[in-house]
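Ticket #4471: structure export looks truncated?
Reporter: QA, pipeline team
Priority: medium

Steps to reproduce: submit the single chain below to the structure queue and open the exported record.
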Amino acid sequence: MASTAGTETGYRTARGTRTAAAVVTVLGLIGTAAACGGGTSADGAGGSTVTVAVAGDPGSLSPTTALASTALAMNSFAYDTLVHIDADGSPVPGVAEKWSATPTSAKFTIRPGVTCEDGSALTAEDVAAEYNHIADPKNQSPMLGLSVPVTAVAKADKAARTVTVTTRKPAPFIVEMARLLPLLCEESLAKPAALTRATHASGPYRLTEAVPGDHYTYAKRYGYSWGPGGSTGAGLPGKVVSHESTAANLLMAGQINVALVNGADQDRLDAAEVKYRSLEALFGQLLFNQAAGRPTADLAVRKALISVLDLKQLGNVATGGKGRPATGIGEIAPTPCTGDTVTGNLPAHDTEQAAAALTAAGWTKSGGTWTKDGKPLTVGLNYATNQGPQVASAVELAVQQWTSFGVRATAKPTGSGSIISTLSGGDWDIAWAPIGVTLPDQLTQFYDGPPPPKGNNFGSVVNPDYHRLIARAAAEPGAAGCALWNAADAALVKHVDIVPIVSKANRYYAKGVTFEVDGSGIVPSTLRRSAG
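Actual output as written to the record:
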């Protein structure tokens, strides 16, 4: 598995202290775990538990419907996948012991002995049923296009323990995307709502307690033996938590074991020589709502708004000077396509150019405000508060720069669990919304096709160049299509459909444990106690 870490921020507090987010506790090294109140043992972190900080309540945990990054990360503790991804980006066995693939099909052989938490066997029939459930448009699963190819149909061979997935359209990464398919025993598919605050686990842990906004507790599944590279449940610890400065305080005090810290608290953790694993990921990106009637549906407005901003300054503020200008639109390593699709493709920082663009589009400036047809240019910038105070400062800086230029702009903070619902609801103009995936074709559902509720094209993007290029790229096998995938990504940037601003090495700091990470965060089956 990948040897670096990163995704969301988080924290966990002791009982009696209010927090804005939730706590997840994974139990099961030796004996009973410490209570969620944060009791500690001689090693400083509750000997049989590990406490990990996450950034906000996950909302629904139902694995076929949850899309929020916190929920996806938490579900990785409970649900295993057909394959995992090694540090070089190649798939390695998970629940599938072997596979073969073509651009329009894949055949997975399910290893024997895999069970769900009630002891029932996870079979090829279960896996095929889940593929077909997600692929069925009537179920409106957001995992369609992420973990299951559009147009997929799956058939099981019980005797051979195989699942054959076929698609009408090419799916060049059909095996790799299976790493995001959280496997369920079939009976759970009929009642996905029952898994909103529960699990029917196929992975190393099972959810035993869920108190939204406060804590989530996972217990080790003894007998688990089908993890990445054949890893087992031996030595698995457990406990997970939520926020950032508080997380750093608790980590330093030995009350939690792991916290993903993106902000200024990195400095004091580094000074204390707290070990970490990191993963370079897109940290800042603007997404525009181009639905009819929105000011940002106008390309001239989008170009002007970006010309007004000093994107380098925004990136420095958002990352405390520790980021670098983004060169991609969200593919997280290890990923097959790594070209620079951003540099030189965005409007330059030039307020005179911005004014000229608006004037040419019929806007006039009166009384210090840009107007058209008697209406002022008014935009709101939504952002998730769980990205930390530095992102909030960057958003306020953007609002200030737009306001100084003559745009009526406001910052609109949203809770970590509500940014997806905000985008899905359609009542927004601009969002600070970095999207992270591991494969370029997983981005297509966000920038092509129908908007919510029929799809996940949150910004109602219509980009003919992108549409044409992704169709050509999908016809190429795997990495052979990277030049086309890169050109497609660049087409979105050139059309100012999205504005990647800054990337950053997100850091998981840890005391008393070791682990590996991939693009989804901590690999649960690799959590181990350590002396340091």
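Status: closed, not a bug. The export was complete when the record was re-opened. Leaving a note from the reviewer for reference: The CA atoms of residues 287 and 367 lie 29 Å apart.
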